[in-house]
Amino acid sequence: MTKIEDGAVVLFQGDSITDCGRNRETGADLGRGYALIASALFASKYPEKQVHFINRGISGNRVMDLQQRWQEDCLDLKPTWVSIYIGINDTWRRYDRNDSTSVEAFAEGYRELIVRTKETLDAKLILVEPFVLPVPEDRKRWREDLDPKINAVRELAREFETLYVPLDGLFAAASVKAPPAYWAPDGVHPSPAGHALIANAWLEAVQA
């Protein structure tokens, strides 16, 4: 039986992978990615639960951006579940803008999001780890920056006993069955198949 209760309010938070082209003018739009797929599959399986899903992912966001908008885009919405998927831009900006985020700053900011959520809401948390695939070739360099951040997310999940979605390993395993570009053409943004992979892993985490 799924962990998500009747009448739950589930908030998806993150960057472009969560955002995925959602219409910001309407608060109800879930975008075209894993948030839409996961919520649609969940709703079809548990119609009697009447769970309400919200997407507040914003393209380009890093942990510091989530911190700045957490009151308005999380706490004020009073979700009973908060799914956080952030981190790839904290790595990417080091390589395209020479604007790096240390693993310490990343972990500290992420921890603050969790603590604020737990102190303000009686909400359960789902942490989704970032991933990167080696397409194009330069993405391989990113591992030195991203791997410690993935470990930081895993440590936070352990510490706060949250649910966890281990995407980096899942995408690596999937890339044995089909080339990395099949799952994420630029190594970061998932293809439709990649979004389905995330959605299924997310549903597995909530035992749906």
TrEMBL record:
SUPFAM superfamilies to which the protein is assigned, alphabetical: SGNH hydrolase
Gene3D superfamilies to which the protein is assigned, alphabetical: SGNH hydrolase
CDD domains found in the cross-reference section: SGNH_hydrolase_like_2 (cd01834)
Domain SGNH hydrolase-type esterase: residue ranges: 14-197
Molecular function via GO: phosphatidylcholine lysophospholipase activity
Xref: InterPro entries: Ester_Hydrolysis_Enzymes (IPR051532), SGNH_hydro (IPR013830), SGNH_hydro_sf (IPR036514)
Pfam annotation, one family: Lipase_GDSL_2
Protein name: Lysophospholipase L1
